[in-house]
Automatic annotation (TrEMBL):
The lineage of its organism: Bacteria, Pseudomonadati, Pseudomonadota, Alphaproteobacteria, Hyphomicrobiales. It is an enzyme of class 3 (hydrolase). The keyword S-adenosyl-L-methionine does not apply. It catalyses: GTP + H2O = 7,8-dihydroneopterin 3'-triphosphate + formate + H(+). The gene is folE. Pfam families: GTP_cyclohydroI. This is GTP cyclohydrolase 1. The keyword Nucleotide-binding applies. It comes from Georhizobium profundi. Toroid-shaped homodecamer, composed of two pentamers of five dimers. GO terms for biological process: one-carbon metabolic process; tetrahydrobiopterin biosynthetic process; tetrahydrofolate biosynthetic process. GO terms for cellular component: cytoplasm. Zn(2+) binds at residues 96, 99, 167.
Length: 209
């Protein structure tokens, strides 16, 4: 878990103190408004730098959150249940680290408990913590799987993310509707093709394919 905390940019107090001030952020947004060719002093835009800063705090709130806090709360009283737990179709919004435009997708997360289970909402919370940072889909998939693997220590974790990247849809190549799929498997999901196949079958049965 140490590695996750250490690689977590918002966690360190010195780094936090080194963040730009509110007025610096607002000035940066004002520069962007000028740069795109608009007038930051017209009525509709005069409060926009402040609004954008507030929106960014929300959209990128994941830098101030630690997945370990969420995943640390587990329980064991599940009447001996020891089979797969799958939470599928968890919707998320993220932003790509290359263009800072949205990634819109769904995550599917499964694990094989080793005595302990997680509150179901905690899996969705972890998705949100990583989604609310600048991401590549590959990193986000690997980070979610690593956080669950290292904190819960289950017999295996499977993460699949399906997403559309607005940087491919709205700009650049301008291809709308394509979906990127990424997966990470650990433990038995990685070593046992049968477990991996069950994960895929459970996902497919839902999607009606
Ligand atoms: N692997 C991966 N690539 C991504 C992701 N999000 C965006 N990209 C890609 O990152 C690449 C950045 O390519 P560059 O050539 O540096 O940037 P660019 O000139 O804006 O590229 P174009 O998007 O092709 O116009 C693009 O191919 C994007 O499609 C992601 O989550 N994973
Ligand atoms: Zn992009």
């Amino acid at each position: 878990m140490d590695a996750i905390v250490k690689s977590f940019p918002g966690k360190d107090q010195d780094e936090k103190d080194a963040r730009p001030s509110q007025s610096e952020v607002e000035a940066a947004v004002r520069t962007l408004l000028l740069w795109v060719g608009d007038d930051p002093d017209r009525e509709g835009l005069v409060d926009t730098p402040k609004r954008v800063a507030k929106a960014y705090k929300d959209l990128f709130g994941g830098y101030d959150e630690d997945p370990e806090d969420v995943l640390g709360r587990t329980f064991e009283e599940v009447a001996g249940y020891d089979d797969m737990v799958l939470v599928r179709d968890i919707p998320f919004f993220s932003h790509c680290e290359h263009h800072m435009v949205p990634i819109i997708g769904k995550a599917h997360v499964a694990y094989l408990p080793d005595g302990k289970v997680l509150g179901l909402s905690k899996i969705a919370r972890v998705i949100d913590i990583y989604a609310r940072r600048l991401q590549t889909q590959e990193s986000m998939t690997a980070q979610v799987s690593k956080a669950i693997d290292e904190t819960l220590r289950p017999l295996g974790v499977a993460v699949m993310i399906e997403a559309e990247h607005m940087c491919m849809a709205m700009r650049g190549i301008r291809k709308q509707g394509s979906t990127t799929l990424t997966t990470t498997f650990t433990g038995q999901f990685k070593t046992d093709p049968h477990q991996q196949a069950r994960f895929m079958t459970m996902l497919r049965s839902h999607n009606g394919h």
